[in-house]
Target: Mitochondrial fission process protein 1
Amino acid sequence: MAGHSAAEEPDLYRDTWVRYLGYANEVGESFRALVPKSLVWATYGVATAYVTADAADKGRKAAQANTNGLGHTADITVAVVDTFVWQALASVAIPGFTINRICATSLYLMGRVTHWPLPVRKWATTAIGLSAIPVIITPIDRSVDYLMDSSLRKLYNTHKPNESRPT
Model:
């Protein structure tokens, strides 16, 4: 969780337990072999709601921070779009796909190289998926930072060459 100064209010979506709602779909993917698919899709709903709420919050904060009216709409749009795209990639799409493939591969390989009964293989797959979550987070976050810095964020800076990218 990110640090903040004593005068600064903690960011609800990044500095509190609410941040973990963004990982709901990775947990869902880890349990895919054991639970109904509708439950897995529901975890994507939770993660998407988190992403949307964080983007709306950053738009609200950008609106509050810009009281002079110059570039007001652009600042709000950049805050919302940047947050939504980053979170959608780093919290939902890429980690969901990654955990899905890790679990599918592990279930397949265990079926080929072990004689474990299917329920044991499914629980082992779930354990592998859950334990992979903390390992994949930082590399995915850094990769999405690089991807966005190399693409979308360059568009924001073309209109404001003397300002740094949104955070």
User: Anything to note?
Assistant: Residues 103 and 125 are 5 Å apart (CA to CA). Confidence is low (pLDDT under 50) at residues 159-167. The radius of gyration is 19 Å. Helices lie at 24-30, 37-65, 72-113, 118-149, 152-159.
